[in-house]
Amino acid sequence: MQAKKRYLILFSAGVSLILLFYLQGPASKRTPNRGDDPHPHWPHFSDPLRAFIPWDQTETEDYNVRVSPRHKRDDNSGASKCRMDSCFDFSLCRRNGFKVYVYPQQKGEKISESYQNILSSIEGSRFYTSDPGQACLFVLNLDTLDRDQLSPQYVHNLKTKIQNLNLWNNGRNHLIFNLYSGTWPDYTEDLGFDIGQAMLAKASISTENFRPNFDISIPLFSKDHPRTGGERGYLKYNTIPPFRKYVLVFKGKRYLTGIGSDTRNALYHIHNAEDVVLLTTCKHGKDWQKHKDARCDKDNAEYDRYNYKEMLHNSTFCLVPRGRRLGSFRFLEALQAACVPVMLSNGWELPFSEIIDWHTAAVIGDERLLLQIPSTVRSIHQDRILSLRQQTQFLWEAYFSSVEKIVLTTLEIIQDRVLQHNARSTLMWNRLPGGLFTLPQYSSYLGDFPFFYAVLSVKPQQKFTAVIHAVTPLVSQSQPIFKLLVAVAKSQYCAQIIVLWNCDKPLPAKHRWPATSVPVIVIEGESKVMSSRFLPYDNIRTDAILSLDEDTVLSTTEVDFAFTVWQSFPERIVGYPARSHFWDSNKERWGYTSKWTNDYSMVLTGAAFYHRYYNYLYTQYLPGSLKSMVDQLSNCEDILMNFLVSAVTKMPPIKVTQKKQYKETMMGQTSRASRWADPDHFAQRQTCMNKFASWFGTMPLVHSQMRLDPVLFKDQVSILRKKYRDIERL
């Protein structure tokens, strides 16, 4: 009983002390501006940008800046608060659409090769206008890429030069490109002039200074980065399992002092010289020996023993730590090599972060958790590694392989902001073929694009529209075009036939055309030029187009079979007459051949199916210079369409059952439409091949040896067992 009383007294005393402390203690020690919460606010470790700071220091202004860098940006006045609705004049874009004007170069002003490549990419794009009165966006002719005062590319007195521009208007509707800012020792992001209300397309931009949906983060690229085309990714085939010789590699400079030195100085902690190979060298700069530490000699010796490219191509993951600035050349190098980037650059706004989901192509690490990186990458499942690796190749080829693609991606992002009702979806940007080939002005519905059918489990329509290109007058009822009309109209899949009349003679009377079971619409070609056969006519309502020359010889069975094949490959060209390309090492140029071999890379549009979206892409995406060349020569339009479709799909066309009769018939034709007898025809097509390859920056055509035949084709069985039996009789 006495024990119970003692316990009760002790319990009562304890409760009294707790109440006394709660009511009086915290009140007398309350930290200013912390409200009524007595508990310390520990950092959330899921935030990769938050520093490890004692909780009692979290009320300082300095802490709040680092915890929420965008908080400081939003509190600032002026340009830092710029958004599209406050610092951009949309009315300039409503008059003539999204057009970009580049200031003419001033005498005596030097422009670096990299900046000239940027300007040339804009001037060669469909957005360019030479009339500032039609422009929606303006780009300076003054080189703003390198704003490091120690650089020979640094442009002096830039502030005054920009302010003297008549159209500057405090930077409104202007876009400024920049790769390097700041200089030793702090490498700030200051450009050395007031950007006003201009948008920044900047490399190594921090989240703190980045203005969402206004600025654009671009990758850091070298002066040797190709202007157009660029090399394809290095992933030639998938390996299962997707592991390589090394798990994680890095080879680069180690900074002994100054900004950016912390992370690279600590890499030796996780380097094991076996499957985690992280090499650094102190041997750079004029006075590196003055600052060398005890590890320098050993690091330098080991650094020289490894070949960087061999490491890059034989590693599963590539470390991309920050350098003096947040960005690094290692980023693009890793993407191209299909080496999954492991980012270690806290606070870096990743390139094109507005549109690209980087979690599908990279591992976003934290500089403070360096020691956990090896175990983290080892824990990633092989299926995930394969997916990450494939996405690196897609992103590299779609947006980063050339200066032109970087510039066009930047402009397309801005256009999506301006034309919000036609903006691309996230899926359009992050799935093949990418945002540059997916024009939202065509349709806002993904199911209208042939390359998204598989993703959405959508099937193309069961009908096609035949478009016959006619260039000779109707003289006799025995002309091939009449037989072609009848044969195509009998197809069970034909919805309508459009005759594109590009002849100099007037349109024939309706009674001149044969009676058919499907509508026959005769329309006059625009300006009577070759490119008009690929215009996106409103009359075409079906997904599939059967493109035909007027002297093509096809049976109804051949049409039905080819359409059936196309339904399985709606993103490709499917047809009969095949051609190929080759590299002529003696002349150092591309060659064109019509030899009948087991190899081809083109299917001519004289008898081929393709999706109607490619008519829109041909008209809107390709530059006027290429289409003008086609129209002047009255040739090569079929080659250009093959270039375009292969550039989009990265795949070859599909040839169906071999039809030598097609070539023999063409050779026998004597009409003006038959260009086979023209001695200049072949030479022109050789020239076209090289002109097109030059504009695309690479050769997009892909060779194939696949031919699709009907089941039981040429098999020694009864003809009655074959569905497309008429094909064998041809």
From TrEMBL:
- The lineage's top-level taxon is Eukaryota
Q: Where are the transmembrane segments?
A: 7-25
The record's annotation in Pfam families points to:
Exostosin_GT47, Glyco_transf_64
Indicate whether Cell membrane appears among the record's keywords.
no
The cofactor(s) it depends on are: Mn(2+)
Question: What does this protein's UniProt record list under function?
Answer: Glycosyltransferase required for the biosynthesis of heparan-sulfate.
- Tell me what this protein is called: Exostosin glycosyltransferase 1a
- Organism annotation: Cyprinus carpio carpio
Q: What is the lineage of its organism?
A: Eukaryota, Metazoa, Chordata, Craniata, Vertebrata
